[in-house]
Amino acid sequence: MAEGSAKIVIISSLIVVAIFLLSFIVSISFLKIVRWAFLLLLILLIWFFRDPDRTVPVAKGNIVSPADGKIVEIKDHDNRQKVAIFMSLLNVHVNRIPMAGKIIEKKYTAGQYLPAFNPNCYLKNE
């Protein structure tokens, strides 16, 4: 499971367990339907936050994609390489370190949350 997602999955699991227990205690047919819907959502949530092992070829100068998905742009930007990747809901949403090195600065740049089907979303999204 991806780092940082454990809290979301644990809370969601507790909610599903509570709904299942409640549906066994209180005989309401609506709860019997809802419990299976919540269980399905929990399974999809766990699947979304999956973190499969990756085998990375090790060689000097290798740069691998930091995420699953489709590379939509590679360009030089302020003495750095910018790689824009489109990830669909089916892709693994874990970002990895793309190359060997040392982090000397970390800078957060606020962005928007445009939908992925927007053609310029990779220019403005976080």
Kindly describe this structure:
- With 126 residues, the protein is α+β, with helices and mostly antiparallel strands.
- It has two domains: 6-48, no CATH class; 56-126, no CATH class.
- It is 35% helix and 12% strand.
- It contains three helices and two strands.
- Strands 1-2 form a two-stranded antiparallel sheet.
- Helix 1 packs antiparallel against helix 2 (29-48).
- The chain is elongated and about 65 Å long.
Q: SSE layout and pairings?
A:
Blueprint: H1 6-25, H2 29-48, E1 70-77, E2 80-86, H3 121-124
Antiparallel strand pairs: 1-2
Helix content: 25-40%
Low-confidence stretches: none
Q: In the residues, how many domains can be counted?
A: 2
Strand order of the largest sheet: 1-2
The N- and C-terminal alpha carbons lie at a distance of 22 Å
CA radius of gyration = 20 Å
Shape: elongated
- Note the total helix count: 3
The secondary-structure class comes to: alpha+beta
Average pLDDT reading: 85
User: Strand count, sense and closure of the main sheet?
Assistant: 2 strands, antiparallel
Secondary-structure element string: HHEEH
Number of strands: 2
What share of residues are in beta strands? 5-15%
